[in-house]
Design brief:
This protein is α/β, with parallel strands linked by helices and 381 residues long. 35% of the residues lie in helices and 14% in strands.
């Protein structure tokens, strides 16, 4: 297969888990109602998969062929909706329905680890019928098999994983190698940071020498204050989702906090754009397929999850999205047709490459509210 040459707009996502110990947080807005964890249902995947399947995912997070191929193979009709643009925003939209035991017609959501955990705690997600998902449990890469928030993968299955670090214009900011460099006055007005708190603030804490495993509320607030000062002084041009891509292309921004998958594709269009591992290390995260309560066709949902965990099918997706594959065997499939893609450390990172990276520290309760409010103030001025 050949890699498409198009600009990939990374959805605005939060934090979380690849490799080893993962930690999770609560939603960035208040949640109400909802059944408790003890009321969690288990999917009944009896019968042959058929009928209609509705999936909610982030924009441009799948290739152009997989849905049609799945429909042709199974006879299932798929409605694929790109309506997850932010975890908290999506939760706010579906929470009233979930609270009534309904899913808005959806049988699969794709949300980041911390949001999957939050939804499950509220009783909004179903546990899987694992007998219908043999590919998932056979082919899930070992590093993602037992995250603390879902140690047996009872209700979450990774869709893609990725890295947050620095994306630079090599010709305009050749010396930027550290998060701390983003605060250098020589780059004033040319720096952008993500609106996603759980990507941006932990990286700034790392710049400030904080051990994220020991981070306190005061550490979070100190990093937010540093960001706010930089925004008020004009050091930070603006806070963005992945629309930083167009600013890098135009030269309006020369160094940004950004996502690995974006950079792989952006570099294909402009060799001067490059993702860099910060000297302090990067942040890692994953997005997950989940089945909500009230899902009208969970049998078809599990059939789709099982389908995309075939390494051949996953390789087709990965050649388009360019994030880190959660499916073992994908690299070997890609190597046959695109050795350059298969050898990219941003798509198939080694343990050594990821050694300096972290997941975001947990925030809950009052601390989460305080930090979130402070960050929103910094971002919105």
């Amino acid at each position: 297969m050949s890699r498409p040459r198009r600009k990939r707009w990374r959805p605005a996502i939060a934090l979380c888990g690849l490799l080893g110990a993962l930690v999770f947080t609560g939603c960035e807005q208040a949640v109400i109602g909802g059944p408790q964890t003890g009321d969690v249902q288990t999917v009944d995947a009896s019968g042959k998969p058929s009928g209609e399947l509705t999936i909610s995912n982030w924009p441009l997070y799948i290739d152009k062929e997989t849905i049609g191929d799945f429909e042709a193979k199974t006879g299932i009709s798929v409605k694929y909706i790109e309506d997850v643009n932010d975890n908290a925003e999506f939760f706010g939209k579906v929470q009233p329905q979930l609270d009534q035991g309904e899913s808005g017609g959806r049988s699969i959501f794709v949300v980041t680890d911390w949001m999957a955990n939050k939804m499950h705690e509220l009783g909004y997600l179903q546990n899987f019928d694992k007998t219908a998902m043999l590919n998932n449990y056979k082919n899930l890469v070992p590093s993602l098999q037992n995250p603390p928030f879902d140690p047996n993968r009872d209700y979450s299955m990774p869709w893609q994983t990725g890295l947050t670090g620095i994306v630079v214009r090599k010709d305009l900011a050749p010396d930027v190698t550290s998060i701390c460099d983003l605060f250098d006055p020589q780059y004033a007005g040319k720096v952008e940071m993500l609106t996603e708190m759980r990507d941006t603030v932990p990286l700034v804490m790392k710049c400030m020498g904080v051990d994220l495993g020991q981070a306190t509320t005061d550490d979070w607030l100190a990093a937010v204050a540093k960001i706010q000062d930089a925004a008020r002084s004009g050091q930070i041009r603006r806070f963005t989702g992945n629309d930083y891509a167009r600013d890098l292309a135009s030269g309006d921004a020369t160094a940004v906090i950004g996502w690995s998958g974006d950079a792989v594709q952006l570099q294909a269009d402009d060799p001067n754009i490059e993702w860099r591992m910060p000297e302090e290390g990067c942040m890692v995260w994953s997005d997950n397929m989940v089945i909500p309560v009230g899902a009208p066709n969970p049998t078809a949902a599990e059939a789709f999850m099982n389908y995309v965990y075939d390494p051949v099918h996953e390789a087709q997706i990965e050649a388009y999205v360019n994030y880190v594959s959660p499916v073992a065997g994908t690299k070997e499939v890609l190597a046959q047709d695109d050795p350059e893609l298969a050898g990219n450390n941003l798509i198939f990172p080694s343990d050594k490459f990821l050694a300096p990276c972290d997941t975001a520290p947990a925030l809950t309760g009052k601390a989460e509210q305080e930090v979130t409010q402070a960050f929103e103030t910094a971002v919105n001025g």
